[in-house]
Structure formats: structure tokens, C-alpha cells
Design brief:
Elements lengths: L1 E3 L20 E2 L2 E2 L20 E6 L4 H12 L6 E7 L4 E7 L2 H11 L8 E7 L14 E2 L5 E9 L2 H10 L10 H13 L7 H9 L4 E9 L6 E6 L4 E4 L4 E4 L11 E4 L4 E6 L2 E6 L8 E4 L15 H7 L1 H9 L3 E2 L2 E2 L3 E2 L3 H6 L2 E6 L1 H18 L3 E5 H4 L10 E7 L5 H12 L3 E6 L5 H4 L3 E4 L12 H21 L4 H12 L1 H8 L3 H11 L4 E6 L3 H16 L2 E6 L16 E5 L7 H16 L3 E7 L11 E5 L7 H19 L18
Parallel strand pairs: 21-22, 21-23, 23-24, 24-25, 26-27, 26-28, 28-29, 29-30
Antiparallel strand pairs: 1-6, 2-3, 4-7, 4-13, 5-6, 5-7, 8-9, 9-10, 10-11, 11-15, 12-13, 12-14, 14-17, 15-16, 18-19, 20-25
Helix pairs in contact: 3-4, 4-5, 7-13, 7-15, 9-13, 9-17, 13-14, 15-19, 16-19, 17-19
The protein binds 5-amino-5-deoxy-1-O-phosphono-D-mannitol.
């Protein structure tokens, strides 16, 4: 723990406003373009993934900040730190490793040393420098009077570091962040910005390249905390006699549901009486107030051992909430529509771009959208999309799917698509995140906060939302009659109870998971919409149980992967419906008998009453019979539970798998 004494100083801000960058225009509609919300388009490619929280109010800042960090830890858990303005002092503690290490250090130092009602904290996913104490945030200037926490990457930090070192400053960490602490301290000490913390931060922000959310405290200024953002998330929480800033509303939802979303290149000063927003030139700026529509219980484990297990059980609600309100007056409606119906009618090609599970949700949707809309659909990993020069034009619809709305690869894909004049529709679980802000239309999944790093309820909600996009397109293009759209929507709505019924398999799958915990590898097979489910099952197992797992299209087996089959190798097979897809069902039964003959142990996920497959299943997990295209919504659920249980049996932290973070904001 370190404590530093303050100095006093005057105020003043003589920043000049930077030239306005042009807005993008699209088919006569004005949409956010580069320089507005999309201000960082094409400029920022790398961002760190961290959770930050700041507080000024009437409670003990340490308690508020640590509470907030607990709910931010999903964003990164390589190290954590706090700084509290303790009257006339700045008291800092930081530790590598999980938040528990920081709390132990705070307890050792004595919580009374952190008595104060303003402070901030950070939980880190390392980008610059290994996760050791000296690289943990907060970072301070040489005197220790200024403290900074940061989410993002300062791309010109090497030049800033060289400049600081040339002027005799000694840096004590490997991070990009530390440079900002020294620069802010210098701005605060001299020149036009002397003694004015907001002005000093603004002056430094104007020099930074890259993506950042910064939260800054100065020992001289115990009554306020300053925060700024460019292309990294930052929300303000407005309470009674207290104000918060954080990467995510989850950090302060326990105290207030009134929030304010900051725009691009904005700075906020929070005090216990409220907040003031300016742009980086010091001019007053508008920020968007909103009310958070979920409460603390949604962000807490509610008696479950892990968030992931709770989130698996929340899937029926996630589906129902995602669909709610999207069929009105006989029509499918989106949330934010900055495209006309004519634009939708003109679409001649669809790309779905996304990463990880969100990508798998796109693979599922391809089957439905092509079938319903007679439109070619390409599903692309966002990280590959813009590097292979995809053919895009104004009649291309790009559907960007992202739970967090922050994923750097997907965000860059969105920017690339819009540069090529394609229209972008975001499917996102996070209100006001960067991806929806930069898109032409938005459909929010209302899965609620997903804290477990593995995507579960968000994935199911994405599948449902992607289907809604398909129905909206079919409706606009007239490839489905209104009564057909209504019927498909009704079937989608009914999936909430089908998923609830599927949760009845939970105990069987848990027991199975325990028995499979010592397996070296697992293969997953599927056909048609079962193929992306197989990929999703394999991804879950890899990320949670650190086990080799591969998903294959079952028909591909004989073209190579069948050589992997050996005695006792567990192979999970996702069966199509024997009624809905009779031909595929027969073929898959043949595939299973081929692998069983070669010694594989078969775990079969099949529709209830599927007696044909029973003899070929060493373990049969039955899921409710549902329309073919909707099967992934039920067949994915046992695979989530299986991965979680295998990981748990192996002693791993199911919510925080190694090397991962919830929002991947680095390319
Ligand atoms: O926030 P996003 O939906 O954009 O995240 C995409 C992937 O990083 C995410 O789905 C990841 O693959 C999950 N950890 C998988 O469980």
C-alpha cells in the first residue's frame, strides 16, 4: 500500500476544438460516420480488455469499488488494483492475479487506511507487459500524486514513453498506461492546464492515439474523479448523492439503475452531486441517459456455484425476452431501424460476421435465412472478413453479431463493411455498445448480463435474434406471406418452453460429464443445423475443460477425421429429427454405426421418441421435438452442461477459464 500527500492548485482550460470530421451519409439517410460515434473507424485496431470503476459519493469508496470490481472481473482477471482519495491523501493497492489477492493485500494493510468516499479500481486482462504487480493498475506519476486506470491500448505509447524518458522521467512498468499518468501530472503541474485536472486529462487525451477509457484521480482533488473515453466503453451511474463511472453498468447496478452513456471522445467529471460531460476540447457535450432494465439479481449467482450454470438455466427467459415486442400489428419489428423497408427489399446478399459462439449462431441462421428469403448468406469469422477483400456494395446486408458489442474483430468488420457502403445490422446484447452505435440497424438480444466467459444464454438469444432478422427480411422481400411470418414467429416463441423442458436433462448430462472427465479428446458430429451445434459444443469444451475437441460435419468424417476414431473415444452426435429430416437422419445413423464399429463411445443427442438411433447410442440424451430449423435451440443446451460439468470435475473455474476474457477487444 502507498499513500501520497496532496498540493493545491488553480483551474483553467484553454484547449482548442479540433476540426470536425465529416459524417458518413447513406442513401440519403444520415448515420453515424467516422468522427461522430464512429469516430474511431479505421483508426483504432487494438484495445485492451479490462474492467474499470470510479466512485464519488457518501459511502466508503473501497467497498463500492471492490463490489464493482467483483462484477467487472469477467472482463479480465490477470491483476486488480484500487486507489482511494483518503481526505488529503491517495492510497493505492494493486496485486497480480485474481481480485481475491488484492482483497487480501487490502486486509493486510488494514481497510481503515482506505477510508474515503472517492476512488477507483481496475481489473486487468494483460496486453502490454506480463501480469505482475508492477504492471497492475492504478499507475501513478513519479510523485504518486496522480493515479490512472485504463482500458484500451495507447498505440503511440512508445513515442510518448521516449519523450518522457528523454525529459528524465523514470517509468516503473511495461505498460502503455503509465505514460498517461506522467503526462497528466505534467499537464496539471504547468502551463494553461495547471491545477485543473479535467483540463489536464483533456489535453493528454488529445495527444493519445488508440482506444482508451481512462479514469483519473489526483490527490489534490479529493472531491472529483475524471474519466474519458475513445472507442472503449464507459458509462456513468447517477445515484442519490453519489456518482459512478464504469466499463459496464453491472459495476453499479446495486446502487442505481440510472445511467448515462458517454459518446466518442468525451470526458466526464463526477462528483457526489452529479456529473458534467465535455468533449476533448472542453466544450459541453451531450451524453445519452438511459435506465437499466435489469437488476442486481440478474448479475449475481443466485445460489448457483457458477454464473455459467445460472445462465444456462436462464435460457428460457433469455429467449422469451429477446422475442418480446418484436411482433406487432402482424409484423416483425427491429429495435433501431436507420434503413428503410426499400433498403431491406434491395438486399441481394447477406453476410453474417462474428466471432466464436456468435459466429456459430450465424452458421445456424444461414440455413433459415437462405430458406426463408432465397438470399445467399455467407457466414464469416470477423477476424478474416476484412482481410480477404469481400465483395460488398450498398445492396449487401452485413449482420454483425456480438454479445458484448465490443469485440474488436467484429467492430472492425462493421467499419470495413460500412466503408464499402454495405448496410450493417447489429445483433447485440449490450445496450449502446460500440457495434450497435456504428450500425445502420440494431436488434438487441435481451439475454440479460452474461458474466460467465462461456457464451450460453447469449448464444441462444443470438440464434433467436438472427431468425428474427431472417423473418424481417422475408417479410420485407415478400418471400413469406404475413401469416407464414406470424406462424414462424409463434414457433420461435414456443421455444422458450422447449428449452425449459430440455433443462430436464441437466442431471443426466452432469452425471455423464463426471464420467467423461478423464477423456483426452471428444469429437462432435452434426449435419445441417446440427453441424454448427457440433462446432459450438466443441468450442465450449475447449474453452472450459482445456480438452481437445473438434466439431465435424458428419458427412465429412469419411474424408479424413474418421482416422481419429479409436477405442473409447467419446463422440457426441447431434441427430436431426427422424421426421423433419428423414434422409439426413438415416445417413447420420449410418455414420454412427461406422464409428461405433471402430470403437467410439457414442453420446447421442436426439429428439425424444427417436427409436431408430437408440441401439447406436451408448448414452442417449433426449430433447423435445421441435421444428427442424429451431433444433439448435434445444440441442445446444446439453452440450453446454456437458462442457461445464467436465470442467468442474477437472477442478477448473467454469466462469473464468484460463487465458480468456469475456469481451475480446484486441484484434
Ligand atoms: O461479445 P461477442 O459475442 O462478440 O464475443 C464473441 C466471442 O468472443 C465469444 O462468443 C466467445 O467465443 C465465447 N467465449 C464462447 O463461449
Amino acid at each position: 500500500m502507498t499513500t501520497f500527500r496532496p498540493r493545491n492548485a488553480p483551474a483553467g482550460d484553454r484547449a482548442t476544438r479540433p476540426a470536425k470530421r465529416p459524417r458518413g451519409a447513406f442513401r440519403g439517410l444520415t448515420v453515424p460516420g467516422r468522427g461522430q460515434d464512429a469516430g474511431s473507424v479505421g483508426v483504432v485496431t487494438l484495445k485492451g480488455v479490462c474492467g474499470i470503476v470510479g466512485y464519488v459519493g457518501h459511502r466508503q469508496a473501497l467497498d463500492v469499488v471492490l463490489g464493482g470490481l467483483h462484477r467487472m472481473e469477467y472482463r479480465g482477471y490477470d491483476s486488480a488494483g484500487v486507489a482511494v482519495l483518503t481526505g488529503d491523501a491517495l492510497t493505492v493497492e494493486r496485486r497480480a492475479g485474481r481480485l481475491a489477492n488484492l482483497e487480501a493485500a487490502v486486509d493486510t494493510a488494514g481497510r481503515e487506511a482506505f477510508a474515503g468516499t472517492a476512488g477507483m479500481g481496475h481489473t486487468r486482462w494483460a496486453t502490454h507487459g506480463p501480469p505482475v504487480d508492477r504492471n497492475s493498475h492504478p499507475h501513478r506519476d513519479g510523485t504518486g500524486r496522480v493515479a490512472v486506470v485504463h482500458n484500451g491500448i495507447i498505440e503511440n505509447f512508445a513515442a510518448l514513453r521516449a519523450e518522457l524518458e528523454a525529459s528524465g522521467v523514470e517509468l516503473s512498468s511495461d505498460t502503455d498506461t503509465e505514460t498517461t499518468a506522467h503526462l497528466i501530472a505534467r499537464a496539471y503541474a504547468e502551463g494553461d492546464t495547471a491545477g485543473d485536472l479535467p483540463a489536464s486529462v483533456r489535453a493528454v487525451c488529445r495527444r493519445l492515439e488508440g482506444a482508451f477509457t481512462l479514469v483519473v484521480t489526483h490527490a489534490d482533488q479529493p472531491d472529483h474523479v475524471v474519466a474519458a473515453r475513445r472507442s472503449s466503453p464507459l458509462v456513468v451511474g447517477v445515484g442519490e448523492g453519489e456518482t459512478f463511472v464504469a466499463s459496464d453498468v453491472a459495476a453499479f447496478i446495486e446502487h442505481t439503475r440510472q445511467a448515462v452513456e458517454l459518446g466518442q471522445d468525451q470526458l466526464v467529471v463526477i462528483t457526489r452531486d452529479g456529473y458534467e460531460v465535455t468533449d476533448f476540447a472542453g466544450e459541453p457535450a451531450d451524453a445519452k441517459p438511459f435506465s437499466v432494465d435489469w437488476d442486481l439479481s440478474a448479475a449475481e449467482k443466485g445460489g448457483h456455484e457458477y454464473f455459467m450454470l445460472k445462465e444456462i438455466e436462464e435460457q428460457p427467459d433469455a429467449l422469451a425476452n429477446t422475442l418480446r415486442g418484436h411482433f406487432s400489428s402482424g409484423r416483425v419489428v427491429l429495435d433501431e431501424q436507420r434503413m428503410s423497408d426499400q433498403d431491406l427489399r434491395d438486399v441481394d446478399k447477406v453476410f453474417v460476421v462474428a466471432c466464436g459462439s456468435a459466429y456459430h449462431s450465424g452458421l445456424v441462421a444461414k440455413y433459415a435465412i437462405e430458406h426463408w428469403c432465397r438470399l445467399p448468406v455467407e457466414v464469416e469469422l470477423a477476424s478474416e472478413f476484412r482481410y480477404r477483400d469481400p465483395v460488398l456494395d450498398r445492396d449487401t446486408l452485413v449482420v454483425a453479431v456480438s454479445q458484448s458489442g465490443e469485440t474488436a474483430d467484429t467492430l472492425e468488420a462493421v467499419r470495413h463493411a460500412r466503408e464499402q457502403k454495405a448496410r450493417v445490422l447489429a445483433v447485440c446484447n449490450t445496450n449502446g455498445a460500440q457495434i450497435p452505435r456504428e450500425s445502420d440497424a440494431v436488434l438487441y438480444t435481451h439475454a440479460g448480463p452474461e458474466i460467465g466467459v462461456a457464451s450460453t444464454k447469449a448464444f441462444l438469444a443470438q440464434v433467436a435474434a438472427n431468425y428474427l432478422v431472417g423473418l424481417a427480411l422475408a417479410q420485407a422481400r415478400g418471400t413469406k406471406y404475413p401469416d407464414e411470418v406470424a406462424r414462424e414467429f409463434g414457433e420461435l416463441e414456443a421455444m422458450s418452453s422447449a428449452v425449459a423442458k430440455t433443462l430436464g436433462t441437466l442431471e443426466q448430462v452432469r452425471a455423464l460429464g463426471k464420467r467423461m472427465a478423464d477423456s483426452k479428446a471428444v469429437l462432435f458430429l452434426g449435419r445441417h443445423v446440427g453441424f454448427p451445434v457440433a462446432l459450438e459444443g466443441a468450442l465450449k469444451l475447449k474453452e472450459l475443460a482445456y480438452m481437445h475437441a473438434e466439431g465435424f460435419a458428419a458427412g465429412e468424417l469419411k474424408h479424413g477425421p474418421i482416422a481419429l476414431i479409436e477405442d473409447d473415444l467419446p463422440v457426441v452426435v447431434v441427430m436431426p429429427s427422424p421426421k423433419g429430416r428423414a434422409v439426413l437422419h438415416s445417413k447420420l445413423v449410418s455414420n454412427i454405426s461406422e464409428i461405433q464399429a471402430r470403437g467410439a463411445r457414442t453420446i447421442v443427442i436426439a429428439e425424444e421418441g427417436d427409436d431408430r438411433v437408440r441401439p447406436f447410442a451408448d448414452e442417449l440424451v433426449e430433447v423435445p421435438a421441435v421444428p427442424t430449423l429451431l433444433q439448435p435451440l434445444v440441442s445446444t443446451v446439453p452440450l453446454q452442461v456437458l462442457a461445464a460439468e467436465i470442467a468442474r470435475s477437472r477442478g477448473y473455474d467454469v466462469d473464468k477459464p484460463r487465458n480468456l476474457a469475456k469481451s475480446v477487444t484486441v484484434e
